[in-house]
Write the structure tokens for this entry.
Amino acid sequence: MDAVDRKILAILQEEGRLTLTELAERVQLSASPCHRRLRALERDGTISAYRAVVDPAALGLNFEALVFVTMRQEDRETLLGFEDAVTRIPNVLLAQRLFGDPDYLLRIVTADLAAYQRLEDDVLSALPGGAAAELDARDEAGGQ
């Protein structure tokens, strides 16, 4: 990987919807060599996917909560069950394992505090092996 490849990656991370022509202009290459480099970066796994970043507020998800989870059980089966269950909750934007106490950090979005409370009561409290330890919630519309 050389400086041109790194520049392609940097530009695409900021503006992933550039056309090939625009990208080539930005890295000062013609379209064909830029296209070859881009395909090589995709083929070797350096570029693994393209995504759209969606604004939760545009979907009416104005409440964000950071939830720290401490596991009651930490055996492999329980951890894998917990992680599998969390990936099935559409409101969870991020689930990160923290090696220590607490065990996980979840970033969750809902319409409002009442919707979060329902999610916690009905879904989060039933996750395998976990107990929500702390909550740092922010109402993205303006308050706490």
Notes: Strands lie at 63-71, 92-97, 104-110, 130-139. The two ends are 46 Å apart (CA to CA).
